[in-house]
Amino acid sequence: xxxxxxxxxxxxxxxxxxxxxxxxxxxxxxxxxxxxxxxxxxxxxxxxxxxxxxxxxxxxxxxxxxxxxxxxxxxxxxxxxxxxxxxxxxxxxxxxxxxxxxxxxxxxxxxxxxxxxxxxxxxxxxxxxxxxxxxxxxxxxxxxxxxxxxxxxxxxxxxxxxxxxxxxxxxxxxxxxxxxxxxxxxxxxxxxxxxxxxxxxxxxxxxxxxxxxxxxxxxxxxxxxxxxxxxxxxxxxxxxxxxxxxxxxxxxxxxxxxxxxxxxxxxxxxxxxxxxxxxxxxxxxxxxxx
Amino acid sequence: xxxxxxxxxxxxxxxxxxxxxxxxxxxxxxxxxxxxxxxxxxxxxxxxxxxxxxxxxxxxxxxxxxxxxxxxxxxxxxxxxxxxxxxxxxxxxxxxxxxxx
Lengths: 290, 101
Fold this sequence. Notes:
heterodimer, A: alpha/beta, Rossmann fold, 10 helices, about 35% helix, B: about 20% helix, elongated, THDP-binding (chain A), PorB-like (chain A), Ketoisovalerate ferredoxin oxidoreductase, beta subunit (chain A), TPP_enzyme_TPP-bd (chain A), oxidoreductase (chain A)
């Protein structure tokens, strides 16, 4: 069926038109490496749509489907139902959506999918704005971050996807980061073996939108873990576990100063943000003990 | 173009697909984007494979038996510099790509 014109090591083509240093590209390579070729991918429009290809050309060796922005989870439900009707219970149905397609536009279909308990693996790669259309602020944009629609810094907090997922009582949900690939691969191996709705939230820096050098994107994601801006945890059958606990949290100014999008943050705002981040980290540690 | 693609799919016996479908797997020559090129100091390299693990384009292979153990696919390397930034021994340097070389 598929006409292979250039050879690759994995299931994704080597030359894809993602920007240099893009986190999304590294993440999908590792996900498909773990999940294997018995996977069907649903991709909404966005940066990740480049994997579905343009016209006749594709960048994935496995079946992929490009739907609309607001209903990726609903499409995945339909594909899963089709497979079940064929007697196929082994194929993993993967949704690979950005933060806009998950937290703003696709939230209702994701909520419906989690409520019905469909056997779908939903991955949100979070680059914290609408990067494909020109860095517009989304509901995943962090507090005080610049974007073209929040030029003086966003004045509300970021939505918490995993708390929304936990409220739907999903069997498994986890947060991963581009800065810790062994942890990411381990979580996807675990997610592959579990039945039911699974939600994975992946931190994925965007060098273009965040104002960082392409070479620094892995370093920035590691710094986000060290400062507590991004917490690596997993929730499995009602039990929450924080996977990476830094010995002491670094001050968030080291993370903010690496990026141009936080250039306008004043010292008072930084202090406010520091308190929120520390409180959130301590809350996670308390939730682990419940 | 859509009609063409449907006619290709209609000939397939194994799969019964409807609608336009991309069925040519190909790579763009992203190596032409590169402004800087990674160069490895092989005498310091410990062959840990961290550069290959974090390469977004997956173009690095570690061949432990050879002396020049870190091999790049120059057709696809975008020159982002993550390998040089992540190397624990700092033995990868980014050198400017000159025209015609």
